[in-house]
Structure formats: structure tokens, C-alpha cells
Amino acid sequence: MTTETANLIEAPGARASMLRRAFAEKKLLRVAGAHDGLSARLAAEAGFDAIWASGLEISAAHGLPDVSLLGMAEFLSGAATIQRSVAVPVVADCDTGFGGNLNAAYTMMCYEDTGVAAVCIEDKVFPKRNSFVDAGQQLLEAEEFGQKLTTAKQAQRHPDTVLIARTEAFICGLGVDEALRRCHHYVDVGADAVLVHSKAVDSAEVIAFMDRWRHRAPVVVVPTTYARFSVREANDAGIAMVIYANQGMRATVRAVRDAWATVLAEGSTTGIEPHIASVKEIFDLSGMNQWLGRDR
Ligand code: SPV
Ligand code: MG
């Protein structure tokens, strides 16, 4: 399945419609973070329902921290590559919408052109810092962020594209009342789903939110710090989507570090050969046979 998209002609909004159907069926979506075609394919091949085009991963893949250093064009290029590489819906992490209201509108237009299913914009001030950076987290006023959502929604061309409003209320030390107030306002002005981010070590604040949200719109969570949070618990709480935003990159970093250390320590690659993918696996993942087939 990994390279099937190479020959696929998709109707505009096809993957957004897939995502909306999944939301309507109340099926919990398990989503993996990625930063390029290969990392996205590995996640799709593993069976994830969708791919998160992660700002943290795309930044790190450029050798940069996730503090708004890259511009929209670079994040967009990352998301477009991911979109081309898989057949499942792609949820694009669009940070703050890369600026003000007009930037958010332009973000919506450009990301829709790539065919991604969902655009996610967060309620922090531009330039933003990754949510796990302790200092310098600054929330935008809810009403101001609401205007950004409205502008983005007005720029949307396909009716099924999903606009996810992400609140960083918990990240900024505010409580469940403020998270709820913000998310209700975001849905009032047109958001199709909300992402409630948390850096707590357990799921208590996310569950407290769910208890009072009453399924008003689909809820997305990112259980990075509360890693014990299971799919079963997410299902029971009525969560629509769980994003494992960066574990793939973290697994890669550890594996590559170990491999290169072994090569230098042992003076050859013999020791790592049984533990690394074959060149054939790379050919398969990158669609070598399908591409050569075009030339026959
Ligand atoms: C990302 O993957 O870039 C995210 C999720 O936004 S987090 O890093 O947890 O903020
Ligand atoms: Mg991000």
C-alpha cells in the first residue's frame, strides 16, 4: 500500500471527507506524527488512521527548534510531501496560522491546495514556542483567536476541510473553565473540532474537560507527557482523535544514535546489519518497482 498514492487521482477534499466520515462514525482515530514522506509511510504502513504533519518534527528535521523559525512555505512543503506519500488523511499542524488573521486565511488556502484533510491552528501568540518549552508561553485573547478562525474558515473552499482549533489554555497554566470557554467560543465561530493540549503527567485535566464538553464537537488530544493514557481510556472519554505526535522521530533518533555508535566502536557495520533495514526495504518504501515500472 505504501506507494499507491503515486497513481491515485483524488477528488478535491476526498481525505477531508474520509476524516469527517470517521468523526461521524465516532471511531477513535489513532494518528502518528511525521515530518517527511518516509516517516509518514512508516506510520501508514503500521496501520495508523491518519498522519499529523508535526511542526516539531518538521523543525527538528531541519535541525531547528520548534519556535517559529521556519516559515509557512517550509511547513507547507513538509505537509505536501506527507500528503503525496500516503493515502490516509493528513492533519496539518499549522502552529498559529503563521501570523495574523490574513496569514491564517492564506494558510487555509495553501494547505487546502495540497489536499490535506485538516488544518490545525493554535491560540498562542506568533511567534510561538513548542508547548513543552517551560518559559515564554503566551496565549492570544480568545476573541482575537476567534477572528483568526473566522478568517481561515471564510478562506476555506472545500466544505469538508476540517478546521481544528487548538487551545493551549492548559499549557499556559489555566484551568478547565478557561479551556472550555475558549473551545466553546472556537466552535461558535466555526471550528469543526478542538484540540485540547496538555503537558500534565496524567490525563486528569483532559478528562475533566471531556466530562463537561458533552461531545459538542470532536476532541483531539496529544498524550505525550501523559503517556499511560490508553486508547481504551480515550474511547471511554469520548475523544475523537489521539495524536502520537513525536514518538516516531524519538524512536528513530535513539536507533540511529545506537547504530552509529556501534559502527565507530566496532570498526565495521557487521554488528548492526541484523538490526537495520535492508536496502530492499528502502527500495520498497520508496516505490522503486512502481517507478521503474513506469519506464518499461
Ligand atoms: C507538534 O508535533 O509540533 C505539536 C505537538 O504541535 S507538541 O509538540 O506536543 O506541541
Ligand atoms: Mg506543533
TrEMBL record:
Transmembrane feature ranges: none
Pfam family, one: PEP_mutase
Keyword entries, A-Z: Lyase
Keyword Lyase: yes
GO MF term set: lyase activity
InterPro entries registered for this protein in UniProt: ICL/PEPM (IPR039556), Pyrv/PenolPyrv_kinase-like_dom (IPR015813), Pyrv_kinase-like_dom_sf (IPR040442)
Protein family membership: Belongs to the isocitrate lyase/PEP mutase superfamily. PEP mutase family.
Protein's recorded name: Isocitrate lyase/phosphoenolpyruvate mutase family protein
Protein's organism: Amycolatopsis halotolerans
